[in-house]
Design a protein that fits this description.
The chain is α/β, with parallel strands linked by helices. Helix content is about 25%, strand content about 25%. The N and C termini lie far apart (about 50 Å).
């Protein structure tokens, strides 16, 4: 059993934590993960106790306490971060398909869309036409060097949005490259690393982020902003919040 010492270390109030995931990318040591819908400290020796994550919790669920804990271990942090990066480079820690070259479910596909006639655009057929121009769309599966990401207007969407907003294809998707994900149910640390890699390889012309008004979605916009900063790029961003009633609640430019 590892020796413990009295030192400062973070404490997470599970009653306050709503699992939004904003604290995860704020921890440079990767000591935090969302597990079973709550932020968790995955290892005492990974936490330096400095509290960089405190200001990123909108619920005030994280604090610093003094208690017996394993000593902070920089070597363990380095090994942990390498394991996270390895998972990111593997493209899917949970995915059964690892072949992104030959698998049609995962490899890059650009979908061509023909222009409809003016008459058709006014008809019922156009209202049902798909505006999707790339595959895959899941952030976990998209190759970071995909051609459809280059000089794109990138649309990053919480995966509940298309179910809530009825006119998603025509209002948001048309002419954009799509990435979807859930910052609460998926691995926010993986998302952060993947977005950084995408932004380093492909500087988008603009990023539009569409998320739900629920608390767990707020982490998506933060992840994108932090990833842009980490990648060293400045890109115009638009953030749109959709209500569970299917209406636009807010729309901001950054």
């Amino acid at each position: 059993m590892a020796n413990k010492i009295m030192r400062e270390i973070i404490h997470i109030d599970e009653e306050k934590c709503d699992g939004c995931g904003l604290c995860v990318p704020a921890c440079a040591e990767g000591a935090l993960q969302i597990i079973d819908g709550k932020a968790r400290l995955v290892g005492e020796r990974l936490c330096d106790g400095l509290g960089a994550c405190l200001g990123d919790c909108p619920r005030g669920a994280i604090s610093i306490e003094v208690r017996e804990a394993e000593a902070f271990d920089t070597q363990a942090v380095e090994e942990h971060l390498r394991s996270i990066q390895g998972a990111a480079e593997g493209a899917a820690a949970e995915g059964e398909c690892m072949d992104t070259v030959s698998c049609t479910a995962c490899s890059e596909i650009v979908l061509e869309r023909e222009e409809e006639s003016g008459a058709a655009e006014e008809g019922a057929a156009a209202s049902l036409a798909s505006e999707l121009t790339n595959w895959p769309v899941q952030l976990r599966l998209v190759p970071s060097g995909a051609k459809f990401l280059q000089k794109s207007h990138l649309l990053i969407v919480a995966d509940c949005v298309p179910f809530a907003f009825a006119d998603f294809h025509r209002r948001f998707l048309k002419g954009k490259a799509l990435l979807i994900g859930c910052p609460k149910l998926d691995d926010a640390a993986f998302y952060f690393q993947k977005l950084v890699e995408i932004f380093q390889k492909n500087i988008p012309e603009k990023i539009t982020i569409v998320m739900m008004e629920v608390g767990c979605c707020s982490g998506l916009g933060q992840l994108v902003s932090r990833a842009c900063t980490q990648a060293g790029i400045e890109v115009p961003q638009e953030k749109i919040v959709i209500g569970i009633d299917g209406k636009i609640k807010s729309q901001t430019q950054a």
